[in-house]
């Protein structure tokens, strides 16, 4: 494991000067989560999770409020959750999650992003079996030993704990996401540097310089698709 989660987040956040693209994507995700259940995070776990992620990206309150109010207002705008799987240069593997109100448009854009950059779309299941869904929670101000003690006291047996720069990163089962956060909150933690449920590759691959440059260009093109929410891959980019 041990990918540089804070660096990955910072790279995504700095891609657009004013992060408007990231905020727009969160707006859609919050709206969909609020519309699918109660527009209250205390009774809607999906919404609670999205809001916790949004907090780590410093999404402004007015964007969050606007998305929730839109859901409360009974908007008839509907989104489909889609997952695409594909291959990049040198056999690299990619998973793409999207929310869209136009399936044909999104499929076309994602396929083009793969195809124009040395990759190709695969069929459902062609890549996902090489990844595990994993909760990733990052905290500051605690050592690895202190984090382990906090989790043991909460009777939580997680997958892994690693120190990264000034943070401790906890890898856990997806259904442990809220329990891990609650354990740290009970220990005085109020902020999380990372709060994600992601797809972790079983094994990472390293590409040569040319293949990596092409791969990064392909990932940028995929992430530039307005409907794409998350991109996961098995390449060690050396962050």
From TrEMBL:
Cellular-component GO terms for this entry: cytosol
Keyword Repeat assigned: no
Protein's UniProt keywords contain Cytoplasm: yes
Keywords: Cytoplasm, DNA-binding, Transcription, Transcription regulation
GO BP of this protein: regulation of DNA-templated transcription
Database matches in SUPFAM superfamilies: YebC-like
Gene Ontology molecular function terms on file: DNA binding
Domain TACO1/YebC-like N-terminal: 3-74
Domain of life (superkingdom): Bacteria
Subcellular location: Cytoplasm
Limits of the TACO1/YebC-like second and third domain: 79-235
One Pfam family linked to the record: Transcrip_reg
NCBIfam families: PRK00110.1, PRK12378.1, YebC/PmpR family DNA-binding transcriptional regulator
Family as reported in the entry's similarity comment: Belongs to the TACO1 family. YeeN subfamily.
Full protein name: Probable transcriptional regulatory protein BAZO_14809
